[in-house]
Design goal:
With 308 residues, the protein is α+β, with helices and mostly antiparallel strands. Helices cover 36% and strands 25% of the residues. Strand 4 (74-78), helix 4 and strand 5 (104-107) form a beta-alpha-beta unit.
Length: 308
């Protein structure tokens, strides 16, 4: 039975207010807050890479779990903003952790990457041992590209989150997961080489608000649970309005969806694990089902159910 053993996060020091980012695209701070739920976000330093962010979260996660990197069976790094086309950041992070033969896998799925990695790790860990998952994004390198889009630049921030999946022990055991993809909407959220991010916000919100609740409901039903049974939902922090829509569709109180988007913005594949790390610091309630969910470019989406 796979377990979620530990979580950690790393956020860059620089805080970028709504007023600052809004000045670049002609938006006032209150408007940004109203349409996204975001007050501020973090931007990495110019010389801080995706691998740098990932390494800090990875080291923190291993230290909290009191686990040596040399004991890992695999490392997975999820990122849609890698610094180069190849190799991705996974091999760099593994090398900087002192590893020279441990498999290091890149999962280049924006926003949903860490959810996919958690689902894959929960299936693989029993045969290869503990797996470290990191989501790391430097979205500032994308949103600041000219021409800056008003509906894009205001949403994103930088950061990294990590999760250690174990075959033997942890805060909660993984009961199951569900993963989905639909390439019919690939053009609605895409990032070309050296190009600005292109997003059809209406399509993204519409599809996510339909697909995510359905995936969660199907997963819960498969395990004899209902949405009302779930103590906490840890969802990709895309937009507060989207999170509220998913809560409404599931007919559960919005406060059951942990949210930190006001402080960090949308950190793509890092966001769900950053939220999980903050939430877990408060103590994982005994016997409480927790549901992870994400939706991202591709479109890719899904959910994972765990219980202490």
């Amino acid at each position: 039975m796979p377990f979620l053993r530990e979580f950690a996060a790393y956020l860059p020091e620089r805080i970028v207010s709504n007023a600052e980012i809004g000045s670049h695209v002609g938006c006032d701070a209150e408007w940004i807050k109203n349409v996204s739920g975001i007050d501020q976000r973090r931007f990495a330093a110019a010389d801080e890479s995706v691998a740098d962010l990932a390494l800090r979260a990875a080291q923190s996660c291993l230290a909290k779990a009191k686990v040596s990197a040399s004991s890992l069976g695999m490392i997975m790094i999820a990122s849609g903003t890698a610094d180069r086309q190849f190799p991705g950041p996974a091999s760099t992070v593994a090398h900087r952790l002192g590893l020279d033969s441990t498999p290091a896998l890149d999962v280049p799925l924006a926003s949903a990457g860490t959810l996919y990695a958690m689902a894959l790790a929960s299936r693989l860990c029993e045969s290869i041992g503990e797996i470290l998952i990191v989501g790391a994004e430097k979205m500032s390198s994308v949103v600041l590209r000219p021409p800056m889009e008003r509906g894009v630049a205001i949403l994103f921030g930088d950061g990294a989150g990590a999760c250690l999946v174990s075959p033997t022990e942890g805060k909660a055991r993984v009961l199951g997961s569900t993963l989905h993809s639909d390439g019919a909407f690939a053009e609605d959220l895409k990032l070309g080489f050296d190009r600005p991010l292109e997003m059809n916000g209406r399509s993204v919100i519409l599809q996510a608000s339909r697909k995510v609740p359905r995936a969660i409901s199907d997963l819960l039903a498969r395990h004899g649970r209902q949405a009302a049974d779930v103590r906490t939902f840890l969802m990709h922090q895309a937009n507060q309005n989207l999170i509220d829509r998913v809560a409404q569709a599931l007919e559960v109180p919005a406060e059951r969806f942990y949210s930190n988007i006001a402080r960090y913005g949308n950190t793509s594949s890092a966001s769900m694990l950053i939220a999980a790390a903050e939430w877990a610091e408060r103590g994982w309630p005994a016997g409480a089902p927790v549901c992870f969910a994400a939706f991202g470019a591709g479109f890719h989406w899904g959910a994972l159910l765990a219980e202490s």
